[in-house]
């Protein structure tokens, strides 16, 4: 293996030396590498040359694959977390047969509660150490800035989804599914997202450099409950956006019109008032 140490993680040409039912064997510098026979539409003949990616599989056997991994040297891509080892790091699938890349514990948050979970996604590149071991290295902020789009004020109040890529004390950075950069301030979330977690929120503003300010909290009207939602729908439907009811209205009239008790009606009005969606007069309730 020492002869190929500097070639691990690179694309190389190799000479085919043997073919059997399961594999195609080739050599580089006297070292034999196996390639799954199923990778070839037409099986190469002995003496011909094949080109592929050199790596060491889970059994520490040198292999050459014609299936290029999504993340390579100086090439970044999303990979999916397949395993979490608290003493080592997380394993990430980048498309290699029988091999996942490890993102080291040293590159992950100190708080293991916000480590990626199985199924989360990390944008990584390939790194090979002096012993020929392959690792996944997280993309830094300059990479995300380079691949992102610039947002505009027209994006305000839009629903967005994205994947977190940096966790800070003040908040979380993410890349949306449409490749816009976003920031979630810690006051705009109930729980801190994990690194690599896919989250959904809404745009509440825009920074000077074109980054989306995102909230993971529901809109006010999404928090108000069924009764308040029903009252809000009635207000929106009425041409004058008003109803001849308030918190002092007759309980029987409320029950007949809305089908709820006066207590439930008052609680619903309270939610709407708190959300800043309505205002009350002496004998009416109106949309703001």
Automatic annotation (TrEMBL):
> Domain Conserved virulence factor B first S1, which positions?
8-66
The residue ranges of the Conserved virulence factor B third S1 domain are 144-218
Protein's UniProt name: RNA-binding protein
Q: Which family does it belong to?
A: Belongs to the CvfB family.
- Spell out the InterPro entries in the cross-references: CvfB_fam, CvfB_S1_2nd, CvfB_S1_3rd, CvfB_S1_st, CvfB_WH, NA-bd_OB-fold, WH-like_DNA-bd_sf
Q: Per the UniProt entry, what species is this protein from, by scientific name? A: Agrilactobacillus composti DSM 18527 = JCM 14202
Q: Where does the record place the Conserved virulence factor B second S1 domain?
A: 76-137
Conserved virulence factor B-like winged helix domain spans which residues?
230-287
């Amino acid at each position: 293996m020492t002869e190929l140490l500097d070639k691990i993680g690179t694309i190389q040409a190799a000479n085919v030396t043997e073919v059997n039912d399961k594999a195609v064997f080739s050599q580089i510098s006297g070292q034999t590498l196996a390639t799954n026979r199923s990778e070839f539409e037409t099986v190469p003949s002995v003496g011909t040359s094949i080109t592929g990616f050199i790596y060491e599989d889970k059994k520490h056997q040198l292999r050459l694959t014609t299936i290029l991994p999504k993340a390579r040297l100086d090439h970044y891509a999303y990979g999916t977390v397949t395993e979490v080892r608290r003493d080592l790091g997380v394993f990430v699938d980048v498309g290699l047969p029988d091999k996942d890349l490890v993102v080291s514990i040293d590159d992950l948050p100190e708080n293991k509660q916000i480590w990626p979970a199985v199924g989360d996604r990390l944008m990584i590149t390939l790194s090979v150490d002096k012993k020929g071991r392959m690792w996944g290295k997280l993309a830094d902020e300059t990479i995300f800035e380079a691949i992102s789009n610039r947002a505009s004020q027209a994006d305000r109040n839009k629903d967005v989804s994205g994947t977190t890529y940096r966790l800070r004390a003040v908040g979380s950075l993410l890349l949306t599914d449409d490749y816009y950069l976003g920031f979630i301030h810690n006051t705009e979330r109930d729980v801190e997202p994990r690194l690599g977690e896919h989250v959904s929120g809404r745009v509440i503003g825009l920074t000077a450099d074109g980054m989306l300010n995102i909230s993971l909290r529901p809109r006010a009207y999404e928090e108000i409950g069924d009764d308040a939602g029903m009252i809000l729908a009635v207000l929106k439907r009425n041409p004058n956006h008003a109803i001849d009811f308030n918190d002092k209205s007759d309980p029987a009239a409320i029950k007949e019109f809305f089908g709820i008790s006066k207590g439930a009606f008052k609680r619903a009005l309270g939610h709407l008032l708190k959300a800043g969606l309505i205002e009350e007069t002496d004998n009416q309730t109106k949309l703001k």
